[in-house]
Amino acid sequence: MFGVEIVGSISIGPHSIEVLKFESHTLYRRITDGKHVKELLVDPSLELRLVPIYPVFYPRFLTQYILCKFEKPITVAPGNSVSLYIEIPIDAAIYAYNKSSFTILDILPLHTTPKLILYGPLSGGVLARYCIANIRDHLDHRPRLGIAIAKLIIRNNTKSIATVNKILLDASPLRLYYIPNDLRVYTQEITMNIVSSTSAIVSYGQPFVENAKPIDDPHELKPPRIYNRTDMLWGY
Fold first, then answer.
1. Which residues have CB under 8 Å from 100's CB, separation 6+?
2. Is 1 contained in some domain?
3. Does residue 106 fall inside a structural domain?
4. What are phi and psi for residue 140, nearest 5 degrees?
5. How far is CA 2 from CA 33, 113, 176, 183, in A?
6. Could you give phi then psi for residue 221, rounded to 5 degrees?
């Protein structure tokens, strides 16, 4: 389903999408929970596709950060590391393409009303989209609407036992990859290096699933050319 041109009508979660092509224009219409939500007239030369998107654009873009609280704490011995998979909630978007050019026409929320949280102090902290991340000890390839699977490695570089409850992700270096004509979505490999009793460094590696295609990142979230990490200074 993801990445394929929309022709006619499709359903995704609570949303029904209609794309009707006429000689002079294309009509885009979205109905959510039985209510007529959005209708647009689009140039007929544009190709509309359903694409997974970071969960920071609905109802509007306020922050590029995502704070994922783990469903259960993870305890790591000094000098050791653990590898696991986490489920990150995501949304969907309608992209309009003309060759290599694109724009986002619509955001389709796939979860309940989004919550924002402050990570850190009032002065200098980070506003983030809040979510609960389920943990898996193996890679589950079953399609899950509204979920991106991330491979997470937690390294304890301190001399004390560390218990991890959350991770702060930056949607700019974070990447989303999808299997074309499918609902499966993944991130790249993510490493969390614990460096003290209150701080950690999150780094973003390479994709870990073959044949997955990266999304075209929105202009607000173009990946940085050099800086490719997130500093967690106020606990984990």
1. none
2. no
3. yes
4. -100, 115
5. 21, 23, 12, 6
6. -125, 35
Domain total in the chain:
1
Phi and psi at residue 219, to the nearest 5°: -60, -30
What's the pLDDT at 100? Answer: 83
Residue owning tokens 């949304």: 91
8 burial via Cβ count (<10 Å: 0-12, 13-18, 19+): exposed
Residue 143 lies inside a defined structural domain of this protein: yes
d(CA 215, CA 34): 29
Instruction: Provide the token pair at 63.
Output: 């922050």
Both structure tokens of 20: 């009707």
Q: Is residue 3 part of a domain?
A: no
Please name the residues in contact with 102: beta carbons below 8 A apart, sequence gap of 6 or more: 95, 96, 216
Structural domain range at position 67? 8-232
Q: What is the pLDDT of residue 112?
A: 81
Per-residue model confidence as pLDDT tens for the chain (236 residues) = 999 999 999 999 999 999 999 999 999 999 999 999 999 999 999 999 999 999 999 999 999 999 999 999 999 999 999 999 999 999 999 999 998 899 999 999 999 888 999 999 999 999 999 999 999 999 988 899 999 999 999 999 999 999 999 999 999 999 999 999 999 999 999 999 999 999 999 999 999 999 999 999 998 887 776 678 999 999 99
Cα torsion 81, 206, 173, 214: sign: negative
